[in-house]
Write a structure and sequence with these properties.
The complex is a heterodimer. Chain A is built from 6 helices and 15 strands. Chain A is of the alpha/beta class. Chain B is of the alpha/beta class. In chain B, helix 2 packs across helix 3 and helix 4 runs parallel beside helix 8. The chains are: A alpha/beta, B alpha/beta.
């Protein structure tokens, strides 16, 4: 089985978010970039586990971005991916990104495409579904479990008010959520091996962009907390009812 | 011209997040001087309440009975074409995340997911959405003629009228099923308020010391009809199921009231809850960072404060 795993560069979860250039650009100053956790912990690790269980197959990671993505690509290779592809373009529009990845998956005969359920920066949940549509493959979102039997996949996914198990045959695209796998810390051997693994830089295909981020805002600052005496919880109930009007 | 709203249903009823999407789509339609049409699948009772949110017509396809993204995206795009809809609205819920991106790709158009406000149509078409897990907001312009938007649950206050919508059966060629549903597991429907839709949420963290102490948290939640949630360490230690984990890598929620008990308020946790309208923090440590993000706080021991608060809520319910 040939699996293509989409990874994205994202600011570390502890990052303080700020903007520059009249609030039109994300301020990367002092930001530590990581592999988007959903892509790394769940999508990539599960793809590797399935390959290891079968004793054969290929796991290729793909990202759309410029060379500042190379450190996170090496990290994903250190975790165990066989090779990497970087489509050399700025990933500013989800459909543009999806078209690049769908095109690569098709031209290189991949069996399935995995991604995390969303990135922790733009929180889009868009690219994986778009890839599925562009390839005309089944799409399973918010997958929490995946088992393969030949070319049949049994996938558990979160749905409104619960979860369900579905079966798909042949090609598929999934977005992975918590539960799919456990985070893997790369070891020294993996880090050394990652340096020698192939990283293919590919020119983008022509695709238009239909969205543009005009600017950013920070949420309004919260006022000071109003403290209530633990001996007088009735005051809190009154505040919630009369002032906040939430009960 | 029209605005098409994809509405999801459960047990014959249109779900809350879809009713919000319907109200949102209807408001856009009104601003554009056109009508709002809803599309759902399976079976619904009457118009499912969609008329009261401003929808004039509800299309129901009863041939699709599974969450099959390939078929549903074909259904939505065909209904949009048949009704001249250039704007398609989903909720940013489980089903919206499954289907909306496929629809945008099929139509080769721009999409914004997780919108939090009405679009600004005064100059182009600008949509506001939360980014960086709620730590910032982005204004995104959609430049294509056709547009897809998913609305973040609990973002707008829906206006409800007495109107009803006409219901029509609708079908499209959606091809063969691409997924086979083997088994469905619904969460306890007894106390089952789905967390992302809950208006009131009671959440607890490591300060509770062990899973055996959750009884008082559930009692507190029950006293006001709230859903329960937890912090990441609590889910990781299997004290609580992972679907209760709110935070940057868990569920993002924006209830009207979020009560956090024994949670210090790490930045990753705040990212999942800072859209809440009112935040109450109960913690023994006055230096807990969560107090900085809270509207109301009690510095005190959960084991002392929570039972007292439960009693006070019960009394409030009895009096009101």
């Amino acid at each position: 089985m040939k699996t293509l795993v989409c990874i994205s560069k994202a600011p570390d979860t502890t990052s303080k978010i700020a903007f520059t250039n009249n609030n039109t650009e994300f301020d990367t100053n002092g930001i530590q970039f990581i592999v988007n956790p959903y892509d790394e912990w769940y999508a990539l690790v599960r793809a590797l586990e399935l390959k290891e269980a079968k004793g054969e197959g290929n796991v290729t990671i793909i990202t759309v971005g410029k060379e500042d993505n190379d450190p996170i690509i090496r990290k994903a290779l250190a975790i165990g991916a066989d090779e990497a592809v970087r489509i050399d373009a700025e990933p500013t529009d989800a459909l543009f990104v999806a078209k690049q990845i769908a095109n690569y998956a098709k031209e290189n005969d991949f069996d399935s495409v995995f991604a995390g359920k969303e990135t922790i920066d733009y929180n889009g949940s868009q690219v994986a579904g778009m890839i599925a549509e562009l390839l005309d493959w089944p799409y399973i979102s918010l997958a929490t479990k995946l088992e393969m039997d030949g070319d049949t996949a049994t996938i558990e996914r979160d749905i409104k008010g619960g979860s369900e198990a579905v079966e798909v045959s042949g090609h598929f695209v999934l977005s992975a959520a918590k539960g799919m796998a456990e985070q893997r810390i790369p070891n020294m051997r993996g880090i050394m091996a990652a340096r020698k693994k192939p990283l293919n830089v590919v020119e983008p295909v022509e695709a238009s962009k239909h969205t543009e981020i005009k600017n950013y805002e920070l949420p309004p600052a919260k006022g000071d907390v109003k403290l209530v005496d633990p001996e007088n919880v009735q005051e809190l109930v009154d505040l919630l009812h009369n002032d906040a009007k939430v009960i | 011209m029209s605005v098409l709203i994809f509405a999801d249903n459960q047990d014959g009823k249109i779900i809350k997040s879809s009713l919000e999407a319907a109200a949102y789509g209807s408001k856009i339609a009104k601003e554009m001087g056109t009508e709002a049409i809803a599309l759902t699948f399976g079976n619904i009772e009457g118009d499912g309440g969609l008329g009261s949110r401003g929808v004039s017509k509800v299309l129901v396809d009863s041939s699709i009975d599974a969450l099959d993204s390939a078929r549903l995206s074909k259904l939505v795009t065909k209904a949009a074409e048949d009704n001249g809809a250039d704007i398609i609205i989903f909720s940013h819920d489980h089903t919206g995340k499954l289907v909306a991106p496929r629809v945008a790709a099929k139509l080769d158009c721009g999409i914004v997911t997780g919108a939090v406000e009405m679009p600004d149509m005064s100059d182009g078409f600008m949509v506001k959405k939360n980014v960086f897990s709620g730590k910032a907001i982005a204004n995104i312009s959609i430049t294509s003629d056709k547009k897809v938007i998913t609305l973040l649950p609990n973002s707008i206050q829906a206006e409800v009228t007495d109107a009803t919508a006409e219901v029509e059966s609708y079908s499209a060629d959606t091809g063969e099923p691409t997924v086979k549903v083997k088994e469905v597991e619904k969460m306890d429907s007894e106390d089952g308020i789905p967390l992302p839709e809950a208006e009131l949420v009671v959440s607890a963290g490591r300060g509770l010391k062990g899973p055996e102490n959750w009884g008082m948290i559930e009692e507190l939640a029950d006293s006001i009809g709230a859903a329960t949630a937890c912090s990441r360490p609590v889910a990781d230690m299997d004290w609580r199921p992972h679907h209760e984990h709110v935070g940057q890598t868990g569920v993002t929620i924006r209830p009207n009231l979020y009560i956090a008990i024994g949670i210090s308020g790490a930045i990753q946790h705040l990212a999942g809850v800072n859209g809440s309208k009112t935040i109450v923090v109960i913690n023994t440590d006055p230096e807990a960072p969560f107090f900085k993000a809270a509207d109301y706080g009690i510095v005190g021991d959960a084991f002392d404060v929570v039972p007292k608060l439960t009693e006070a809520f019960k009394k409030f319910n009895a009096d009101n």
